[in-house]
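Field notebook, page 344. I keep forgetting to write these up properly, so this time I am using the form the group agreed on. The chain and the ligand, fe (iii) ion, are recorded exactly as supplied. Prediction of the bound pose follows.
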Amino acid sequence: MAIEKTQQRVDINTRKIINGADADVVQLYPMKHTFAWDAYNAGNANHWLPTEINMQGDVEQWKTPGVLTDDEIRAFKTVLGFFTTADSIAANNIVMAAYRHVTSPECRMYLLRQAYEEAVHTHAYQYMVESLGLDSGEIYNMYREVDAIYNKASFILTFNDGIFDPSFKTGTFESDQKFLENIIVFSLIMEGIFFYSSFAVIFGFQRQNKMKSSAEQIQYIMRDESQHLNFGINLINTIKEEQPELWTPEFQQHVVDMVKEGAKLEYTFAAEVFPKGIFGMNAESFKQYIEHISDRRLARVGLPEQFGVSNPFPWMSEAVDLNKEKNFFETRVIEYKTGGTLDW
Ligand code: FE
């Protein structure tokens, strides 16, 4: 990045999510996209680490024969198989695509925080696999060996094609639409749809008083992920405002088609995870749940709902919409060391 020596100050009006002024990307002020700064502060306020959660109760349940049925063991391992690689795929996209092309420094600040949170999530799954004594070879290879996980991962990874190319640049109609497509796929579909059946399965265990420590890990993860989704939606809607020419009727239809394809992959995955249903949740109710959240994601970027179905798992929205005022996580107290008390 070459900069010019000048007395001419940055004009906030030239700041853009993509294609902003070059010199602008390291000057946090004047801040324009304040939603990103709010998200950064909210992320810091929600700081947590997987190792703060005691896994002992889960370890006992997992290792005591008869506590979990074969179907439950299969469901738990399959969702973990999805999770273990999914957050690494999300992290790669932040670093290799989003961060490189986003020119708003306040958005870059949040992307740095978000990338770290994806690492914390990957750590959480590693900690669960290790604590429960699972076969890591089996779990970590599932995204290539189990059809329903493979199909989701390979769908998502096609949207890295071209964007990860070092010569990719925004600034043309085609490349800007391609970048916007990437953000839409990763926010709305990956973070907004692909995680949610798996979250619901883990909360299904929790509602039966099973695997409650794993569920606590997932609650923290879901709280972070709902923030990632909100930020992604703000990015999309702000790009739409700043470059309305990108949001053509054809492109809108393309987004609707992609979300429908993502929903289909997700309920195929759900049917694979529990062919006979689990905890009173069957494949049909999962399909309806996935269609319901797909409609909500479309609505948030101003696109028409496609399914018009009610939410069969109303308890999921309670789990998602964590009340910030209330101390939801009462199982522990966090005290982070401040600079003055660090031991070297
Ligand atoms: Fe995320």
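OBSERVATIONS:
- The chain has one domain: 72-319.
- The mean pLDDT is 90.
FOLLOW-UP: compare against the apo run.
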